[in-house]
Each structure stands twice: as C-alpha cells, then as structure tokens.
Design a protein that fits this description.
Number of domains: 1
Low-confidence stretches: none
Radius of gyration: 19 Å
Helix content: over 70%
Structural class: mainly alpha
Largest sheet: none
Strand content: under 5%
Number of strands: 0
Mean pLDDT: 92
Number of helices: 14
Shape: globular
Distance between the termini: 17 Å
Oligomer: single chain
Order of helices and strands: HHHHHHHHHHHHHH
Length: 269
C-alpha cells in the first residue's frame, strides 16, 4: 500500500479501535458500530490509494482527513460505560493546586467582559481552526505540505481520543462548582454547539488543544505569519477551555504536549 504517513496513522488508529471492540466487553450494537466504522475508514483509505495520483483523488486525500478526525472523536465514546471518578477528582485537585478555584471564580465573575468574550470566541474557533489552517497551506501554494500537516494533527488527535475508552471523565463544567463566565453571550453559542456536536465526555488529553496547537505549528513551519496568528488563536483556545471549564488544566497541558510530539514526528516525513 502506498499510503501517506498520515494515512498510516489513520489506519493504525481504526485497527486499534476495532481490535479493542473485539477484546473488551461491549454490547453487540456498540461493537458493530465501532467495527463497521473502522472497516469503512480502512476501505476509504484503500479506495483512494487505488485511484492513484489523479488530481481529484489527491485533493480528496488532502481534505478527507477532516472526516477521519470527526470519526476518531466520536467512536471512542462507544466504549464508555462507566466514568473514572478518581481521575475526575485528581484532575479537579490539579486545577485547584495550579490555578486556584477562588482565582478562577473571581476572574469569571469580575474579569473584563471583552476579555471573557475573547476567550469564549477563541474556544469557538477550535472547530474551524484545523480546516482554516489547511486552507492557508493551499492558498500559499503549499499543497505538498498536506501530508506533514495531517501527520502532526492526526497523530496528536489519535493519541488524545484513543485514550478516552480507558480514561473516561466528565467535563469540569458538569462536575465542578467553580463559577464560569456567565456574562458571555458567545458562551451560550459554545454550549449549544457542545450539546449537539459533543459526546458529552471529557478527553484527557484534550483533543481540541492537541489539534489546534499541532495545526498552528504545522502551518508556522512554512508560513510564519499565518502560524503566529493560528498560534495566538490556539493559545486562546487553551485559555478559554480552562476558564470556561470545558477542560481541566491538565487536559490542555497534556494536549499541547501531544501536539508538540505530532509536530516533531511530522518533520521527519
């Protein structure tokens, strides 16, 4: 198979999910869903590689990882039947030790409203940031960087999402009584999106942090100005995720570390 490096990452991830679905106790419905999605993803990879290096096929291979990324996020939730409450308590304790709930609460209640809105807006950008980053490479005529880009992003994402079956927790906004930026109008939109697009579980490490930082680093390696702008947005996503209690601080920190790992690996592609 003449797969790209990023496609080998996708293949390995879905084989891992399928093997896990066979190995661990799951309902037949959940097992079929995971294995069926994995087979579909692998069949798609093989089909696109079979069509060779035609322009439409290559462009599709550049962009279809967005679909793989969504599936990589949704499928691991099928494994979760119980929560890891000791891990939740440990993550909350780290938040308290590193940030202090009193300080977080004070900022959420009395911080400048424009700054609160800015953090919520940055978190909202966790959804379009990855396709926007790839679009930057396309617009700059750097389509050949797509494989490196996706190697960084998908490796970071798969390492994050792949841990969910074994480290299932709830988002801190549902487990913690620390006040959140209730004065933010953008927060209302974020919560609506999460109610429809989220699996209602917390990923540790944070997939949002991992993909945002990895995308910014991958673009910045070739387009410093675009990378700087994306990097500032990624930093805002990290801050907004903790302040808004979308993620624990340890989630965002470990997600950023995975992004760095993905980026370093991508430089060898």
């Amino acid at each position: 198979m003449n797969f790209r490096t990023s496609e080998w990452i996708v293949a390995a991830y879905f084989v891992y999910l399928a093997a896990s679905a066979i190995a661990v106790p799951l309902s037949s419905h959940r097992r079929r869903r995971v294995i069926g999605a994995a087979v579909l993803a692998l069949a798609t990879l093989v089909s696109l590689e079979y069509f060779g290096e035609s322009r439409p096929s290559e462009v599709l291979r550049d962009w279809i990882p967005l679909v793989y990324l969504l599936a990589a996020y949704w499928l691991p939730a099928s494994f979760v039947t119980a929560l890891d409450e000791p891990l939740e308590r440990a993550l909350l304790a780290l938040d308290d030790r590193w940030l202090g709930r009193d300080r977080l609460a004070a900022f959420a209640e009395r911080g400048p409203k424009p700054l609160l809105e800015l953090f919520e807006l940055a978190y909202l950008f966790c959804y379009p940031l990855v396709p926007a980053a790839l679009a930057c490479l396309y617009i700059a005529g750097l389509r050949e960087e797509a494989n490196r880009f996706w190697t960084a992003v998908l490796l970071a994402a798969c390492l994050s999402y792949g841990a969910l079956p074994w480290l299932p927790t709830r988002p801190p906004r549902t487990t913690d009584d620390t006040p959140v930026p209730a004065r933010s109008r953008i927060r209302t939109l974020n919560l609506k999106l999460l109610s429809r697009a989220s699996v209602q579980l917390n990923t540790f490490p944070s997939g949002h942090a991992a993909t945002a930082v990895a995308a910014a680093l991958a673009v910045g390696a070739r387009l410093p100005l675009a990378g700087l702008i994306l990097g500032l947005i990624a930093i805002g996503i990290l801050g907004g995720s903790v302040l808004g209690r979308y993620h624990y601080a340890a989630d965002t920190l470990s997600g950023a570390v995975l992004a760095l790992v993905g980026f370093v690996v991508s430089r060898f592609v």
